[in-house]
Amino acid sequence: MLDARGTAVPRLAHWGHDLGAVEPTMLELVAAALPAVAPSSPDLPLVPSILAGPAEGWSGFPALVAHRTGAGPARLPMRIHRTALTQPDDRSVSIELLAHDDHGPLLTVGWHARLSPEGVVVIALDARAEAPEGVDLHRLAATLPVPARASDLLDFSGLWAGERRPQRGTVRDGLHLRDQRRGRPGHDAPFLTVLGTPGFGFRTGEVWALHHAWSGNSTTGVESLPTGHRRLLAAELLDPAEIVLAPGETYTAPETVLAWSNAGLDGLSDRLHPFVRALTPPTHRPVVLNTWEAVYFDHALDSLLPLVAAAADLGIERFVLDDGWFAGRTDDRRALGDWTVDPERWPSGLHPLADAVVARGMEFGLWVEPEMVSPDSRLAREHPEWMLAEAATDRQHPPTWRFQHTLDLTVDEARAHLLASLSALLSEYPITFLKWDHNRDQHAGTAAAHTRAVYGLIDDLRARFPHVAIESCASGGARVDLGMAARVHRFWTSDTNDALDRQRIQRYSGLLMPPELLGGHVGAPRAHITGRTHDLSFRLATALFGSAGIEWNVTTADAAQLDALRDWVATVKLVRPLLTTGRTVRTDEPGDDRYVHGLVAPDGSEALIA
Q1: Which residue among 437, 441, 481, 498 is the active-site one?
Q2: Taking Cα atoms as reference points, which of 275, 247, 278 lies closest to residue 261?
Q3: Residue 593 among the catalytic residues
Q4: What's the angle, vertex CA 563, arms to CA 568 and CA 558, rounded to 5?
Q5: Which helix (H) or strand (E) holds 103?
Q6: Is the model's pTM score more than 0.90?
Q7: Selected catalytic residue, list 441, 495, 498, 501
Q8: pLDDT of 169-195, one tens digit each?
Q9: Cα–Cα distance between 271 and 252 in angstroms, integer?
Q10: Ordered structural domains, the chain, with CATH
């Protein structure tokens, strides 16, 4: 419920339980629910607006921070008032606000909210420069009030092969801010910021959640003031001078996605999963075999053809050739950016392998890492100016990361080169799937433009090749967000195939993402990253609850293992309709050594529980 009376900046009066049709008595309650004027405080009731700032007496986190280009410090805080309100239907509203500084109009801000059929709220903001000098924009944040009873906080951290580690605590006065400056959300991304009543769990408690639908730099968090005001907030994290608007130019902020539940975290998933399913491009969900942990860089047709035959015998539906197929790529220290097939290891190109895959009734997929470039590559030698790096006499700035740099996709020629290179591959070979990797952080002051350029590249490629599905991988799960979910068909949840680690990673990734978007593979008996050994039954059960696949050289498996894998693939196909439509259910168990996890059909007619 939005209180938009008068010309002041509106405030959000209610976000939670469905109130039904708005009655006059509700409006009277909103008017009567203003807080008392406290001693040593502004002489008006302090109720933060949707764009709260110092001009309304707000001493907390300002939603809008901007100044006239070239101007000195403002004598008075920015004043904002409402100029227009439109409501196309009963599920959306758009508000136009005009911000003034000492010299006159500065920015026109658009604040837009829509309510999905599932009860998910999406906030979108934009800002247009009105000052003739232009405007330096530093922040445009979505802020949402939550009641003081929401005193428990859950968000996430993590690291490579250890994503989605839950962090719980009690909200304290001040700012709990999570700034992500990696050019991607990162393995330590907050992912989903949840406030709830004390002790909330998967099945109990009232909870409010926020997700920033963005694949670049961001700031998200919780603000709590001693006055009892408590808010969730999110904004794109902008470097100084990163967004300088010319007169009439508009900045569009990433969307913020919010959900409420009075049935705990599973209640959030009940709203978020159908919302994400409607957002994500439609596709089928074939069972995959990926070659990475099977062969790594040891690409040879003679060794891969038996793997193709074994995959087909198991009932695999998509065979994905991972890193190592392109010119000079014998290890991870070279050749990124040179997206042509290696003529030494593949003298006839990828045709013999792709043809064998297709002949056995499987789809053919390929690994790429378009946003990256190796210093030791033809592309870097021909176009060093396309790298987001500067070579010095004794080092490079920033340092290489996995022996690579980021390609500057804000350069039109670099982006066009990538689009042409990928288009050539997709035109020559029967590729229906790309595993799109992203193996380093981007430490540069162009994250805002770069992220938008990445979105544009993916959008352009999908428009040219609508039959090609894309998996987003970022050293595993370092870019799992709803900005990317609108463009890709699958996420590689983590680089670890250790089933024990995967249980936690998939459990918490599944708060936001439905299971069919989360890639999970059956690895070798001894996990390559952790060295742990798990029973095959445990590995199979773990990979079942997701976009299922195998990442294991199954030509080395014995007959009993192959029989179990064959039965498992058949089971995946049998339960796939439930995996792609079912409600996720979890239980709260004492300790962290036992999970109960399952899927229930929307009509309750069937379930799969582990």
Answers
A1: 437
A2: 275
A3: no
A4: 125
A5: none
A6: yes
A7: 495
A8: 999 999 999 999 999 999 999 999 999
A9: 26
A10: 59-279 (2.70.98.60), 288-492 (3.20.20.70)
